[in-house]
Design a protein that fits this description.
Blueprint: E1 11-14, E2 23-28, E3 37-42, E4 45-50, E5 69-74, H1 78-92, E6 113-118, H2 134-148, E7 153-158, H3 195-203, E8 207-214, E9 217-219, H4 223-227, E10 236-237, E11 248-249, E12 251-253, E13 259-262, H5 268-282, E14 288-292, H6 316-332, E15 337-341, E16 353-355
Parallel strand pairs: 6-7, 7-8, 8-14, 14-15, 15-16
Antiparallel strand pairs: 1-2, 2-5, 3-4, 9-13, 10-11, 12-13
């Protein structure tokens, strides 16, 4: 749950639309969106909900889940199942208190947008250094606006607007680690030469600019990793044993070969790091910020008790990111927007727009695709 390719909502359904009242709806009606998993099996047919308990690995006499698991028979298909869940969400979930059209933090120009353009991610090559060049981006996006005759607001999701270890001309990698996309997070500044001029030129064409940052991972090769003792604020896993003393980092690496660690969103350090970054990005005159991975990557149970949350299970992942988004909103002011990758429901009141890359991980069961 909370990884958009595996589960954006807290329910599953099984149905045969040709047979009346054959649908089975199973959901976790959990208003705090704590970490959990959903399972489906075909042989034998089964639906299930699982959760890692808060303070996992500690001695607990009795555990009672803080939310009910609801099973209901219904008539119809996936749409009808979604309406059952929607009815509960609108009445109980903390993230669904205000419909998008009634929110005071959504600029009027958002509702006039028809197109979002990605600057270059994997257009030619994921590490083609010309993709984020201000002159290249200005020309390409201007061509899109002209070609399609777009007279309404257009959104631009801009990768590699920053130097990311390169010199200002993106020719020399000036650090001891690899440079460019998917490196150096959260060290984004300075912006590339000509970036602010390009932003102003595009805004004159009704293009709204949202630069890319990553809100989840830290490049361990950066100076700030050591200087800030950032490892203290990283999410940490535990072996499956009682009262484990040896915890491990969640390590990840992508095509750039930079080594990343997943940070714990519940820590004040990481919340302030992202909020401060957003403030500095908005100072460049842009219209919003794209914060990568928040809605696309599922929770990573953190067992570091020094972070002030229940270890292992519970809602610390969601509550941490929700606080981060709240701070980010205050940093950017009333006319900026926050975007993230893909979609996950518990962040919807802090996110203005979800840009969905992966709608679901595998074809629907019974489909022919």
């Amino acid at each position: 749950y909370m990884g958009s390719s595996s589960g954006s909502f807290q329910f599953l359904s099984l149905f045969d639309s040709k047979t009346p009242f054959s649908g089975v709806y199973i959901a976790a009606h959990d208003p705090s969106a704590s970490a959990k998993s959903f399972t489906f099996s075909q042989s034998p047919v089964g639906l299930g909900v699982g959760a890692l308990v808060p303070n996992a690995g500690q001695s607990v006499a009795v555990f009672t889940a803080a939310f009910p698991v609801v099973i209901q028979i219904f008539d119809g298909d996936w749409w009808d199942a979604s309406q059952l869940y929607r009815d509960w969400v609108l009445e109980h979930a903390i993230w669904a208190t205000t419909p998008l059209q009634n929110r005071s933090d959504v600029p009027a120009w958002v509702t006039d947008m028809t197109v979002w353009v990605n600057s270059h991610w994997q257009q030619n090559d994921i590490f083609n250094t010309s993709g984020g060049d201000p002159q290249v981006v200005t020309q390409r996006v201007s061509d899109v606006v002209s070609l399609f005759g777009l007279n309404t607001e257009v959104g631009l999701h801009w990768y590699e607007w920053d130097t990311l270890g390169y010199d200002s001309n993106y020719t020399n990698c000036t650090t001891e680690i690899t440079c460019g996309f998917d490196t150096h997070y959260p060290e984004y500044f300075p912006a590339r030469d000509g970036f602010q001029d390009a932003v102003r030129a595009l805004q004159q064409k009704n293009v709204r600019v949202a630069p890319y940052i990553n809100g989840r991972i830290f490049d361990v090769g950066t100076q700030s990793w050591d200087h800030d003792h950032a490892q203290d604020f990283a999410a940490k896993s535990s072996p499956m044993q009682m009262n484990a003393s040896q915890l491990s980092l969640y390590e990840e690496s992508y095509g750039s070969e930079a080594e990343f660690v997943v940070m714990c969103p519940h820590t004040t350090y990481w919340q302030n790091t992202i909020s401060s970054t957003i403030h500095d990005v908005m100072a460049l005159g842009v219209d919003g910020v794209y914060i990568d991975q928040i809605a696309s990557a599922g929770s990573r149970p953190c067992f570091d008790g020094s972070h002030g949350h229940d270890i292992g299970g519970g809602d610390h992942w969601v509550s941490g990111y929700r606080e981060m988004l709240s701070q980010a909103r205050k940093s950017m002011g009333s006319n900026g927007i926050i975007l993230t990758e893909s979609n996950a429901e518990p962040f919807m009141d802090g996110i203005t727009i979800y840009l969905t890359l992966t709608a679901f991980g595998q074809p629907f069961v019974g489909s022919t695709s």
